[in-house]
Amino acid sequence: MKDKINKLNSDIQIEFETVSNLKSLEDFRIKYLSRNGIFAELFEEFKLLSPDLKRDTGKLLNEIKNSWQNKFDLKSEELKNSSESIASKIDISLPGIQKPSGSIHLINSTMDEIKSIFRNIGFSIITGPEVESDYYNFEALNFPPEHPARDMQDTYFINQSYVLRTHTTPVQIRIMEKQEPPVRAIMPGKVYRNEAISARSYNLFHQIDGIYVDKKVTFSELKGTLIYFAKEFYGSSLKYRFRASFFPFTEPSAEMDISCFLCNGKGCRVCKNSGWLEILGCGMVDPNVLKSVNYDPDKYSGYAFGMGIERIAMLKNGITDIRILYNNDIRFLKQF
Ligand code: DAH
Fold first, then answer.
1. Which of 167, 208, 278, 285 has the most ligand 1 atoms within 8 A of CB, as the residue to mutate?
2. What is the DSSP letter of 326?
3. How many domains does the chain have?
4. CA of 195 to the centre of ligand 1 (A)
């Protein structure tokens, strides 16, 4: 039995070296030192020995069991202290680590703001496809076949009859085809033009078009709506003016300027010393456009307008290079 005890002693030694945490120490205790453990079994075996063997064997067994009990107690103390010391190193009063959170892109937040201004005065919001047929992008909007906007230099052609839309105005046709007047909607979205990329132009940008068609819609209603919009968006002290212009799909047509809010109309680099900034195109829907959607131009009239979002966002925030909106520099984006 003495041999067995010595063998056990060296086995335990090997196993004890692998104990590295409180859980494995507890497993160790259960296996060897508990009431049903291996030492307890050995003491049962010991009882059966003859009295002359008992003396030596008992001494050995007791010594070894006690030495392991001591080592167990020491290890237990040591492990408890080290786990406590880790806990004591954690300072729960420290501020947490802040995770950076994203923000809404300036183009989207500008669109959201414009949308909510028009939504408040009864315009619905409608979207249309970015790949558009020549018919919707040009023909139904009264562009003559030889109009320069149809030029390869401005338009991305998918094939003979499809283009990447060059403006959001085709959505006006799509709405009017589906619905009888009154029609009152704005149409936000992406548009594409085959332009050389520079500080002032990009080949992708965003527009919002608007249309209102009903009986007896007048140019003064158009002006009233756009002045309301501009004051809501830029502030009520703003000055504005309408200049005659030309678009194939409106007659008469105009452009709206607002007083330059950077120099207060005195003249600066942004307004090119004119004191004015052009913010949108507009006009009365051309009778030919009404005809193309089977609206009777003698019965109905309407106004329309369209604005470029990049331009509006850049002017409002003093941004001078359009490319900065698209190169995803976090230092720029996180300012908004
Ligand atoms: N589609 C024009 C453009 O891209 C903008 C525009 C002007 C839209 C007048 C309109 C409008 O609806 O009435 O430059």
1. 167
2. T
3. 2
4. 18
